[in-house]
Write a structure and sequence with these properties.
The relative contact order is 0.19. By secondary structure, the protein is of the alpha/beta class. The two termini are 19 Å apart. It is 32% helix and 21% strand. It has 5 helices and 7 strands, in the order ββαββαβαβαβα. The longest helix is centred in the middle third of the chain and has 17 residues. It has a single domain, classed as P-loop containing nucleotide triphosphate hydrolases (Rossmann fold), CATH 3.40.50.300. Bound molecules: guanosine-5'-diphosphate and magnesium ion. The site of magnesium ion has 4 residues, from helix 1.
Length: 203
């Protein structure tokens, strides 16, 4: 089991073109309010590393975090969320263009970590996004968030629904709760594997 990921905030970027070259990167993508920032905090076991918000749509920046040591070039990106109802169409198009540019330009993007709200998702918009991301040819790792909000009596049904709607295997979805810590150690191991863990000698 992995302990907290030694993540440090690098900076926020407005523009994909400003991102420097890195060795390996994973990117958290998901609907506004799905729990991206909370997940980063849970992975690092820090309270305020990534800002969490009760106001969806607040983050429109590309927030970069780096695994220690500084300069390792192993990055975790928190990307702006999509699908916040009050965001105007023009802004949604801007988001799609940004993400498209990001995915096309990040040569060392090892995997997209797509977050789906485990209690309610996938929504129609999640499914559209999955289809679109798949067409761009990058590997996707699915994470179902807020597992603690699913009642134990509904859990099996919910999990079955989610994998059948995503059309993936059970083992392709990691269920996590940032609040309770469920599934977080396993996801840390997976992220370290994706980014190449020097301690394991595969970087
Ligand atoms: N119950 C529960 N709530 C969560 C969990 N993760 C996030 N949230 C809540 O969902 C809301 C949005 O979280 P945030 O991390 O800001 O989402 P983001 O917009 O994707 O970055 C906040 O009110 C969080 O407290 C979780 O694991 N369980
Ligand atoms: Mg956020």
């Amino acid at each position: 089991m992995a302990g907290p990921l030694p993540l440090a905030f690098v900076r926020s970027y407005v523009d994909v073109d400003d991102l420097p070259h890195v060795n390996a990167e994973v990117a958290l993508v998901g609907r506004s309010n799905v729990g991206k920032s909370s997940l980063i905090n849970a992975l690092a076991r820090r309270k305020n590393l990534a800002r969490t918000s009760k106001t969806p749509g607040a983050t429109q920046l590309l927030n970069a975090f780096e695994l220690a040591p500084e300069g390792s070039g192993r990055w975790v990106m928190d990307l702006p969320g999509y699908g916040f109802a009050k965001v105007p169409k023009a802004e949604q198009r801007r988001w799609a263009t940004m993400l498209n540019g990001y995915i096309e330009e990040r040569e060392n993007l090892v995997s997209i970590i797509l977050l789906i709200d485990g209690a309610v998702g996938p929504t129609a918009l999640d499914l559209q996004t999955v289809e679109w991301l798949s067409s761009l040819g990058r590997p996707i790792c699915y994470v179902a968030t807020k597992a603690d909000k699913v009642r134990p009596s509904k859990s099996k049904k919910r999990r079955n629904e989610l994998i059948s709607r995503l059309n993936v295997a059970r083992s392709d979805v990691a269920w996590v709760s940032a609040d309770k810590g469920t599934g977080i150690p396993e996801l840390r191991v997976h992220i370290l594997d994706l980014l190449g863990n020097p301690k394991l000698g595969n970087s």
